[in-house]
C-alpha cells in the first residue's frame, strides 16, 4: 500500500540546542519554534501546513557525528549556493558538490555536531 508521504517525521539529536537553533535557522532560512513535550524541549521546523506537512525537530541528544547517521534533506530558502554559504558561515562542513536531480538541486553537508544533512532547493 503506497502512502502519500513515506517520511512522516524526523528527529535530529544535537548537543547544544541554542547553537543548533542559530545554525539551522541560518542554513535553511526557516524558523524553528520551541515546544515543550512532556518536560522535554524541542525545536520544531515550522512548515506551511502544520496538520499535513512533513517536518521534524531538534532535540538534546547524542548525535552520531562525523556524518555516520542518516541524512535528512531540508528545504532551503533561495538557491543551493546561497544555502551552502549560509551553512558554511554557520559552521557546516560541505561534503559534496551540488547535485542535480529532476526535482531540484541539493548539497550534502554536516552540521556542527556532525549530523549528515542535505540542503535542497527545487
Automatic annotation (TrEMBL):
Pfam families: Glyoxalase
Domain VOC: 6-122
UniProt cross-references to SUPFAM superfamilies, sorted A to Z: Glyoxalase/Bleomycin resistance protein/Dihydroxybiphenyl dioxygenase (SSF54593)
Source organism superkingdom: Bacteria
InterPro entries referenced in this protein's UniProt entry, alphabetically: Anthracycline_SecMetBiosynth, Glyas_Bleomycin-R_OHBP_Dase, Glyas_Fos-R_dOase_dom, VOC_core
Protein name (Swiss-Prot/TrEMBL): VOC domain-containing protein
Organism field: Notoacmeibacter marinus
Amino acid at each position: 500500500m503506497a502512502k502519500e508521504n513515506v517520511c512522516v517525521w524526523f528527529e535530529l539529536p544535537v548537543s547544544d540546542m541554542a547553537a543548533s537553533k542559530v545554525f539551522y535557522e541560518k542554513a535553511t532560512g526557516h524558523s524553528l519554534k520551541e515546544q515543550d513535550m512532556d518536560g522535554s524541549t524541542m525545536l520544531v521546523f515550522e512548515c506551511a501546513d502544520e496538520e499535513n506537512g512533513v517536518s521534524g525537530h531538534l532535540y538534546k541528544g547524542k548525535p552520531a557525528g562525523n556524518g555516520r547517521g542518516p541524512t535528512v534533506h531540508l528545504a532551503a530558502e533561495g538557491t543551493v549556493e546561497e544555502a551552502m554559504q549560509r551553512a558554511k558561515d554557520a559552521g557546516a562542513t560541505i561534503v559534496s558538490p551540488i547535485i542535480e536531480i529532476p526535482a531540484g538541486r541539493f548539497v550534502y553537508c554536516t552540521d556542527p555536531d556532525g549530523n549528515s544533512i542535505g540542503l535542497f532547493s527545487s
